[in-house]
Amino acid sequence: xxxxxxxxxxxxxxxxxxxxxxxxxxxxxxxxxxxxxxxxxxxxxxxxxxxxxxxxxxxxxxxxxxxxxxxxxxxxxxxxxxxxxxxxxxxxxxxxxxxxxxxxxxxxxxxxxxxxxxxxxxxxxxxxxxxxxxxxxxxxxxxxxxxxxxxxxxxxxxxxxxxxxxxxxxxxxxxxxxxxxxxxxxxxxxxxxxxxxxxxxxxxxxxxxxxxxxxxxxxxxxxxxxxxxxxxxxxxxx
Length: 238
Fold this sequence. Notes:
mainly alpha; 13 helices; globular
């Protein structure tokens, strides 16, 4: 088999990476359900491993891959909006916790960014890398736009988003058990705030209240970061 010809064909066929992405996620779902929904076998993680392996094997650039799956990126918006349903169903409960929600959003959002920046600075990371890390806890569509505005590297920012989401989904349940978090609302808000869409997918499995608060945290965190992060970075880099 002519390996180079195969790689050229894969990269020149628009639907190839779209099919690979959907198929990888389907395989992830099958494996996840086969092993009784084990935390370490989240569908997104399985799909990520499969896709990354193929990307490395075929030496495909992020730009080429992203261009082929733009339609999935487009539907991320409507999919996120669909999360408004559990929010609506729990609107009264959310209103009753308005002050704790705002305080948690501000404190956790700022701390999450600061600790990442400080750690990278200590280890001598370059400025574009540090800036790319600041958007790690917001959903990918917002992270891409925000990273461009602050002078970060969009592809690297998306990588940090995926890694952060996977770590949160993997370790979230373990952390909740260690610190004895009992309430669905707290679990959901924490997952959405730290692990955005991937965390929200995990929260949906916990329950409707967890899903509602995770969606709320993901949305508010994205808005908070997209508005204030560029302003803060512009202020400090003048």
